[in-house]
Specification:
alpha/beta, six-stranded mixed beta sheet, about 625 residues, 26 strands, about 20% strand, about 30% helix
């Protein structure tokens, strides 16, 4: 049986040190000063070589998704990313000072997706707006240019909040070249206007003239009263031609669009057609990977990961390329986002690194976490549970924990059907982030399991039939994957990034190989090991590649120990109702099941299951 394309769509949419030393994230003095936060007291590997500065340099962030207090768990690779936005702000301050000392330019840019990811963005009280409070801290950083992401567009209230409250703080430097919002104008009439500016032009401290665009990939999952124009159509607009007509010293193009396998070449070619030799620096995002491309010898395109794990760095020697057609000398680096990295590159110590400005941001974020009650403790996880670093099913699999343990437990609470044997089914995309050993808090629940799906059921399905539903769903999914090429564009357009991010992790694991991984382990900790298309090594810190295990599209609970003809409850999440009915009717002909046979199994939603389980079992 082959699932229709719509079924697969529905499924996918749910979803100062020397090299070689190990330093601790904070010493006791600084830890004591910021005692509200537990910084990882584990050794963190420093970078193994200094950054290469050019006469034009850029620090890049993208896809931060609310991770502004960094990664606070002790299991690697989390400590590699344990810096917070206050630490980053101090880093930027020091780097700006170094740039002045070197008499060179340094810009700070961001490629979008500020919403949806942690309790700081998503844990707001009823009546609030996602990321409204957390974005106030990003406003305090000296960003030269920022671009809109697709996660700014899923809910109109979020887009309107950006338009009304965030964009004005950027002074014309928040860019949405191909994204509009419909608002009421001064006459009370609806009008479609850019969320930010379509482009901006400015001059750097060193007098370089910059032209910037902020482009979103061809996204179709935006809410009503927002509009995304295709990239191909955007480059044919009159405003675009006028924006790029005057030659700057360098184009700095940012946008929420991957630098590989997407439409940056469309923008690049449109600019190159007018300015064959002008330096072009591109900063992309969206696919959550570390990546670099050079579309020609006078350009570089960088993508800098996700979730405040990676800080991107690009340098260029532009003066040597003025008045000639020579290749431009570029470098790029992917920095692990932690204090050890920051202190190494600024030649600071724990005692000298913090700035009052950075500390105030950290303190403010911690206060926000308190006001959202993000440290509310459900229980203490006895071990790590991962989505792809352990096989499924296994004791270390978060998917196994969720569907085999947490869901049956959570849905049994105050449920009159608890005594009836049941099989529970959901999709593997139901979990967004790993759960680590230690306190399991409100923030962890919001981060790991955010989707508010309801659980439905069909009663009196014979066990022999119900037990075939999960393999049939996965076999159909496997057959449908053969059509992946024809639906990938549609999946991508709706915002699905997991496929590409996980393919990147899988390739990283394949390159490492079992024997090679063991041979190169030494003192290396787990982390990203990047291979991109630009010259030289991109990673700032050496790591051992994360192991990767693929998982099926659908996952299920352990089947009950009953006879084949025993009537049981078949329980499943609401958004797979249509495809599950189709599967069930294909497995038997004794009854034609319809939505009339489906009822609500429990008022408990999927996003509450882990918390309820932790309260009951992990205490």
């Amino acid at each position: 049986m082959i699932l229709p394309v719509a079924v697969l769509l529905g499924l996918a949419l749910r979803g100062a040190a020397c090299a070689g030393d190990h330093l601790h994230a904070r010493d006791a003095h600084v830890h004591e000063h910021l005692n509200k936060r537990e910084y990882p007291q584990v050794p963190i590997t420093p970078p193994y070589r200094p950054l290469v500065w050019g006469d034009f340099n850029v620090i890049h962030t993208t896809d931060t998704h609310g991770w502004l207090l960094g990664h606070q768990k002790l299991s690697f690779p989390e400590p590699d990313y344990s810096g917070d936005l206050g630490d980053f702000a101090s880093f930027v301050t020091h780097m700006k000072n170094i740039a002045i000392e070197k008499d060179v330019d340094l810009l700070l840019v961001d490629s979008g997706d500020l919403h949806d990811g942690t309790g700081l963005s998503d844990g707001y009280p009823p009546g609030g707006v996602d990321a409204h409070e957390s974005n106030k801290f990003l406003e305090r950083l000296p960003y030269d240019v920022m671009a809109i992401g697709n996660h700014e567009l899923y809910i109109y209230a979020n887009t309107y909040d950006m338009y009304t409250n965030f964009v004005p703080h950027l002074g014309g430097r928040y860019l949405s070249s191909n994204v509009n919002i419909t608002v009421f104008n001064s006459d009370g009439e609806p009008e479609s206007v850019p969320v930010g500016n379509r482009f901006t032009k400015f001059t750097t401290r060193k007098g370089r003239r910059i032209t910037s665009l902020g482009v979103l990939y061809d996204f179709t999952g935006n809410d009503v009263n927002t509009t995304v124009q295709s990239v191909a159509d955007m480059v044919n607009e009159q405003w675009f031609a006028e924006a790029i007509a005057e030659e700057p010293d360098v184009f700095v193009l940012i946008g929420h669009m991957p630098v590989s396998f997407d439409n940056w070449p469309t923008v690049f070619d449109a600019v190159r057609a007018v300015h064959p030799l002008t330096p072009i620096l591109i900063f992309g995002g969206h696919s959550h990977i570390r990546d670099c491309q050079q579309y020609d010898s006078r350009s570089m395109a960088l993508e800098s990961g996700r979730y405040m794990e990676t800080i991107g760095w690009m340098s260029a020697d532009l003066e040597a390329a003025m008045g000639n057609a020579n290749n431009i000398s570029f470098t790029r680096r992917y920095l692990d986002q932690n204090r050890v990295t920051y202190e190494y590159h600024t030649q600071m110590s724990n005692q000298t690194f913090d700035t009052a400005y950075g500390r105030s941001i950290t303190d403010g974020l911690q206060e926000l976490a308190v006001s959202f009650d993000l440290s509310y403790l459900y229980g203490t996880s006895p071990q790590d549970y991962t989505i792809n670093q352990n096989p499924y099913p296994s004791n270390g699999s978060l998917l196994s924990l969720f569907i085999a343990d947490a869901v049956p437990y959570a849905l049994s609470i105050n449920n009159t059907r608890d005594s009836i044997p049941a099989i529970f089914i959901t999709n593997s995309g139901s979990q967004r982030f790993n759960v680590f050993q230690g306190p399991f808090t409100k923030n962890d629940q919001l981060t790991a399991s955010p989707f508010t799906d309801s659980f439905l059921y069909i009663s009196n399905v014979s066990f022999s039939i119900a037990n075939q539903v999960l393999p049939a769903l996965n076999n159909a999914g496997a057959d449908e994957k053969r059509k992946r090429d024809e639906i990938e564009k549609e999946l991508w357009s709706r915002g699905v990034v997991d496929t590409r991010y996980k393919a990147w992790l899988e390739e990283m694991d394949r390159r490492a190989g079992i024997g090679r991984r063991e041979a190169t382990a030494g003192n290396l900790t787990l982390g990203y090991v990047t291979a991109d298309s630009c010259p030289g090594a991109g990673d700032d810190t050496l790591h051992l590649a994360l192991p990767y295990y693929s998982v099926p599209d659908f996952i299920g609970s352990n089947p009950p120990d009953v006879a084949d003809d025993t009537p049981i409850d078949l329980v499943f999440v609401d958004f797979i109702e249509a495809q599950l009915l189709g599967i069930l009717n294909g497995l038997q002909n004794a009854q034609n099941y319809t939505t009339a046979d489906v009822s609500l199994y429990s008022p408990t939603l999927a996003n509450a299951a882990l918390g309820l389980y932790a309260q009951g079992v992990w205490n």
